Prior knowledge:
Structural class: alpha+beta
Mean pLDDT: 74
Strand content: 15-25%
Number of strands: 8
Largest sheet: 6 strands, antiparallel
Order of helices and strands: HHHEEEHEEEEHE
Radius of gyration: 44 Å
Helix content: 55-70%
Amino acid sequence: xxxxxxxxxxxxxxxxxxxxxxxxxxxxxxxxxxxxxxxxxxxxxxxxxxxxxxxxxxxxxxxxxxxxxxxxxxxxxxxxxxxxxxxxxxxxxxxxxxxxxxxxxxxxxxxxxxxxxxxxxxxxxxxxxxxxxxxxxxxxxxxxxxxxxxxxxxxxxxxxxxxxxxxxxxxxxxxxxxxxxxxxxxxxxxxxxxxxxxxxxxxxxxxxxxxxxxxxxxxx
Length: 220
């Protein structure tokens, strides 16, 4: 409503036009009285009557013109206000519909994430992994396709610069899950596991066991 009010603040307001009408009427009446006073002492009655009628017609015509102008201005403003109110209501309806769709979409996403989290396989032991690799491509634990490991290592170096946490790669009827475990002896290490179910890695427990197996301090 603030925007509508600002839009309707015309250079000539209705209050100013009313004031102008009052001023015009007062001026016309004053002029009429002056002419009557002068005419009573110097002119015949017939000419006086004709001048009075002429002044009366002029005043009535001026008032009628101002009245028509005011009516057109009020009508235009009311039409504009009605159109803007209808447009605002339409935009408000569209905004509510968009908000409802967004809320519904978020609810579906939250439901899907909750469902996936509930059914995810939690991996927290080395023996449940296919392998563990370093950021230089060296296999630290287990074994896997060496060519794939080489390509994967190059991709992980790029992803590491954008805050990589996990990766999923479709392989036949299963999915290769890649998780970032942390740092071991100054190198970033990753774990790999193929599974048909969603997988969630417990990096802290895996790193603790890995550090005990190969020696060296582990950093999350």
